[in-house]
Amino acid sequence: MFQSLRREKGFYRRVWALALPLILQNLITTSLGFVDTFMVGLLGNAEMAAVTAANSPIFLVQVVIFGLMSGLTVLVSQYWGKGDADNINRCMGVALYLGVILSSAAAAALLLFPAGVLNLVTDNQSLIVLGTPYIRIVGISYIFNSISSVYVAMQRSTENPAFGMKVFCTSMLVNTGLNYLLIFGKLGFPALGITGAAIATLSSRVVEFLIVAVYSVLNKRIPLRLSRVLHPGGEILHSFLHYATPVICNEALWGLGTTVLTAIMGHMTVSTEFLAAYAIMGNIDKFSTVACFGLAGATAVIVGKRIGEGAGKEEVYSLGICLLALATAVGVVIAVALGILLPTFFIPVLYPLFKLTETAMEIAVTMCIVYIVVMPMRAFDISNITGLLRAGGDARMASVIDLAPLWCFAIPLTALLALALNAPIPVVCLSLQSENFSKMPLGVLRLRSRKWINDITRGDQP
By its UniProt entry, which NCBIfam families does this protein fall under (predicted)? Predict the structure, then answer.
């Protein structure tokens, strides 16, 4: 492994040049979600729990969009290594068609049947009443977000990650400003509470879409070729479906699994406290993993490009070992940082801001302790599954490694402990993170096999 860490001059500088804009982009996007949680949390535990419940089905839409972005990266990064702009546009066209169709269907379901959807997450009627107007409006926002996210993913996969950072920075500023005005009724605006947060989110997504629309017309680096985007062709459609469908299904099933875990918490006797604590832990998780996902994105681009350039299997394997070692080291640093922040900032400062009850505070602290333990493994898994294996065209096995521990272990164990046995809080919190203990060994076995290294762009149409 130490031999793999010795790279050519400038290698690590190039990794961080790609990763840092992605990290900042993820940080900005996460901050947008945290601002929503924080401002709504100031209204009370019930309002924050309602938004958490409402965001669970919406999270499914988000992970499908992320799946499209990841699937697009698999193909585009390798086409970028070949310098094939036509097929990059074709891949983007397929992703746009799929993204708009799926997000529109989800928006229609959330708009027409909001209470029915929320009933799947929680049986707490007060939370359903509070969350219904929120879920109706926010669902529409992801039609716009699906389009902008696909274009941002294309730019990221062609070594232009700074564009996404700028787009989502603007979006965050718009969302934060409108949250302040519409949730609390400042500067003459009506105080709309949760509904105001939803309107702010929708407005920020429209701004993202408008920026992308203008940039795509003006950008000359990867010229927008509408004939290729609108008519991608059967060959690219087949390639995209072959390599991206496992990624999309992976993200959808992973998102569904996460939603099921939320639903389990929503049916516990302390559902309001658990959902409130889980909302805060979810934001801590997103902030903690921005570096991991940034490195995973850089890994996908670097490895995909090298495969597209025709590098041999041993060279690609060595490159992968190096990048995964870097990701694991980052996970250790994050775990140490969280261990310091828990007693010095989270407990005395952050948690009281959300007016948590004593039970909710206990749950939040326990969740964080368990999370710290699994953080290094989680960092490895993120880069291995979403970066390395997918970039090598091994999306099917990446999905197996990602989903089997969740659906076969974490979900049934949590349901048994939380609902049937009414287990103590620490035991339930540990079961929520139990999938992480089997993902890493499975990932290492697949990594060492080298079967994940494939050039998936051979034989495509000119």
Answer: matE (TIGR00797)
Q: Give the C-alpha separation, 336 to 376, whole Å.
A: 10
pLDDT > 70? residue 136: yes
pTM to 2 decimals? 0.73
Contacts of 280 (CB under 8 A, 6+ apart): 37, 41, 350, 351, 354, 356, 364
Q: Encoding tokens for residue 175?
A: 């969302």
Number of Cβ atoms within 10 Å of the Cβ of 394: 25
Predicted pLDDT at 462: 40
End-to-end CA distance of the chain: 39
Average pLDDT over residues 283-310: 87
Residue 304, token pair as written in the block: 């995909």
At 354 the three-state DSSP class reads coil
Residues 6+ apart with CB under 8 A from 236: 87, 90, 91, 93, 94, 460, 461
- Can you tell me the distance from the alpha carbon of 62 to that of 344, in angstroms, rounded to the nearest whole number? 33
State the Cα–Cα distance between residues 351 and 306, nearest whole angstrom: 45
Winning range, highest mean pLDDT, from 109-118, 169-178, 376-385: 376-385
pLDDT at 461 over 50: no
Residue at 72: amino acid letter: L
Residue 458 has pLDDT above 50, yes or no: yes
CA dist list (Å): 163 to 110, 229, 304, 324? 31, 20, 20, 25
Tokens 């969280």: give the residue: 338
Instruction: Give, in order, the Cα–Cα distances in Å from 388 to each of 60, 85, 181, 194, 376.
Output: 23, 23, 43, 39, 17
Tokens of 209: 């879409």
Per the listing, tokens 């164990």 go with 413
Q: Are 354 and 41 in contact (CB under 8 A)?
A: yes
Average pLDDT, the chain: 86
Contact 167, 212 (CB under 8 A): yes
How much is the pLDDT for 460? 47
pLDDT of the residue at 337: 95
Angle between helix 290-308 and helix 125-157 axes, rounded to 10 deg: 40
Inter-residue contact 251 to 66 (CB < 8 Å): yes
Which DSSP category does 451 fall into?
T
For residues 65 and 293, the answer to whether their CB atoms sit within 8 Å is no
